Amino acid sequence: MDGDGRAEREWTRYWRAPDRPVEAMYAHFERHVYHRHSHETYSFGVTEAGAQAFRCRGGAHTSAAGMVMAFNPDDPHDGQAADALGFTYRIVHLGPELVEDVLTDARIRGGVPLFASPVVSDPVLAASLRDLHSGLVGGASALRRDELTTRAVTALAHRAARLSAPRPQPDGAVARAREILHDQPLADVTADELAEAAGSSRFALYRGFRRAYGMAPSDYQRQLRLREARKLLRAGTPAADAAALTGFADQSHMHRWFVRYYGMTPGTYASGAQWAR
Predict the structure, then answer these.
(1) pLDDT average, residue stretch 192-217
(2) Is the Cα dihedral 50, 55, 58, 60 positive or negative?
(3) Does residue 113 sit in the same domain as residue 57?
């Protein structure tokens, strides 16, 4: 802890549904800096106090108190406090399949929405997301959670979604490199080996990969390993074993990167069926 006691003022609470792809987090950060990462889910946040600064889709953004953040699946972003006072926010992660089911059931046409702006100023959406978050973590019945999810997703689709053209497809070498990393996330591959397997120069692959996926191949590989570690932790695997099985040097190595990517410790994540602090 620093001498001014600020480390003690940072906290994270986390909840995870046991039977569907739904997660919720409530946190306050002052010095924590999120490493650039993405989620497999739609992620909808509400800034409660202070302001969070982040980069997403090539631009710099700030979410101040009352604003909504809307991230598409695989939207690379980072994040940190915009000033020394820090920020407090709630965020809900919803699996794409769940969002699609809600929109189909509500007969909202046009496909799953892509949110053109990662920051939306809309008090109605903010209130809907707060209600959903409170219902998820506050012990609401399964029926009530479903109702709140439907209301929040349909509100987001009507008030914030802007369907856009499909994302540009990466060139063949970049796509092959991504496929190699997905097929062998634990392989200790060098930059030269990855470039050769993908059929590209090392420099061209690095530049093209960052342009297509928003991060370097090494960061992308680490994220894949962390996602595998999350699956193991959800299944009850001890953190030390999860670290060994996903290519980290040891438990402390995985712990450090887990916190930088997700804002919580592996232990907090593993106990997520309860409202943990």
Answers:
(1) 95
(2) positive
(3) yes
